[in-house]
Design brief:
This protein has 438 residues and is α+β, with helices and mostly antiparallel strands. It contains twelve helices and twelve strands.
């Protein structure tokens, strides 16, 4: 912008001076022409001889010469023959009044013009010269000033731009500083956005939100590792204790068989836990694929109920299913959801209780509800029952599971882009609602 503005101002100056010179020559030649046509020689002589009277320097000093048809000088400004001889002027027939720039031997600059004036049967040639030396000095001085202003402006603009850029980049420097301080044990770091411009506040808030998610993920990972270690420690300690008891003294064959049978139960528990963890790990992977097909929800639920029929009869719990509906889902994963819900409900429903499944279309999708008449869950636990290894009462016998069943249910629902909700009342039972988009 500075270069453009400087160039434009320089062009305006040069153009204005050239136009003023052209207008001066045009007015002067017309005036002298009128005097020639009026044949007022006295006025013409006075005008030419007194042309530079009163000028103390060469600025705007002009010289005029009148020649007749044969090229003989009739009138000229005193000293003109020394400054601008007639021979240096362009031919008036060819130049047609165009201005010529000429440099004298003493480094003076002149603008020369020659024009022909026709009279009654006679013609004259007017030669005019304008001393441009001071104007050239003025232009040269202006060029130097302009170059100085341009250079100073560029340096000042660069300095101001650097300051503005540094201040503008300070928020990003702050973000970089926070990012460099963040470690696994320093996830509590946050960005102070109070003095920031509005354009960067959203970036800082997004960065803080990312840190919140990371901190929450690390906390969950830490808790998951602690829970996993606790869950693995119990069966491993049991296996070790049984092995130590078996090796403490010689035993009968049936005693060894009892120890091996007890160990087999622990191995089976570890195997189920590993299978559940592997399933959850695959479900958390964004590339996990679900093989969807059109299934009858009631038929799939009935298959699972029939599988648990003997256990339900043993515990004297009635299991029913009502309603019908078709849905797009993975049949194997859907049966696993129902199996986990039914197994969990049987575990907490006392004898003589009831577990009921219901199916209905709701809000453009299929809703499956599992209701039991068990002991219920306190409100403070409802938001955590789908977390891995979470149990409402950890002191209870945990051989029936490791607290992964409902976490698997939630993961499968997420794979199907569905929703899950829970309602529970102490002493009255629990209802778990599953919504599958159709």
């Amino acid at each position: 912008m500075l270069i453009f503005a400087s160039g434009f101002l320089y062009w305006i100056l040069i153009t204005t001076l050239e136009k003023e010179d052209e207008q001066f020559f045009d007015r002067r030649i017309k005036f002298l022409g009128r005097l020639l046509r009026a044949d007022d020689r006295e006025a013409l002589e006075r005008e030419i001889s007194q042309e530079n009277v009163g000028f103390t320097n060469s600025q705007y000093r002009t010289y005029s010469r009148i020649l007749d048809e044969s090229g003989i000088t009739l009138h000229e400004t005193p000293g003109m023959d020394l400054e601008t001889p007639s021979a240096v002027f362009p031919d008036s027939r060819e130049s047609k009044g165009k201005i010529k720039k000429w440099y004298s031997a003493d480094d003076k600059t002149y603008l020369l013009v020659a024009n022909r004036i026709g009279g009654d049967g006679f013609g004259w040639q007017i030669q005019m010269a304008l001393d441009e030396t001071d104007e050239e000095v003025l232009i040269t001085r202006y060029e130097h000033y302009l170059a100085g202003v341009l250079l100073t402006g560029i340096l000042v603009s660069a300095a101001i731009g650097a300051i503005i850029a540094r201040r503008g980049m300070k928020p990003l420097v702050d973000i970089t500083g926070v990012a460099e301080r963040i470690t696994a044990s320093q996830l509590h770091e946050r960005i102070d956005v109070v003095p920031w411009p509005q354009e960067l506040v959203s970036l800082a808030r997004a960065f803080d939100a990312m840190l919140d998610r990371l901190e929450d993920s690390f906390d969950r990972l830490f808790q998951f590792s602690a829970d996993l270690a606790h869950e693995l420690r119990t069966p491993i300690n049991n296996l070790r204790g049984e092995a130590e008891v078996a090796l403490s003294r010689p035993r009968e064959a049936h005693e060894y068989r009892e120890i091996l049978a007890s160990s087999l139960e622990e191995y089976d528990r570890l195997s189920r836990m590993m299978d559940s963890l592997l399933f959850l790990a695959r479900a958390d992977n964004a590339q996990a694929m679900v093989t969807r097909s059109r299934i009858d929800a009631r038929t799939e639920i009935t298959k699972v109920i029939n599988f648990y029929e003997a256990l339900a009869a043993k515990q004297k719990v009635q299991v029913t299913c009502m309603g019908d509906g078709m849905m797009d889902a993975d049949p194997i994963l859907f049966r696993r959801i129902i199996s986990n819900l039914l197994s969990n409900a049987l575990h907490y429903t006392p004898g003589g209780g009831e577990i009921a499944f219901s199916i209905q279309y709701v809000d453009g999708g299929l809703e499956v509800v599992c209701r039991d008449s068990g002991e219920g869950i306190a409100q403070e636990h409802l938001s955590k029952i789908f977390d891995r290894f979470y149990r409402v009462n950890p002191s209870r016998n945990t051989k029936e599971g490791a607290g992964l069943g409902l976490a698997i249910v939630k993961s499968i629902i997420s794979l199907h882009s569905g929703r899950i909700g829970v309602q529970s009342t102490i002493g009255q039972g629990t209802s778990i609602r599953l919504f599958f988009p159709t």
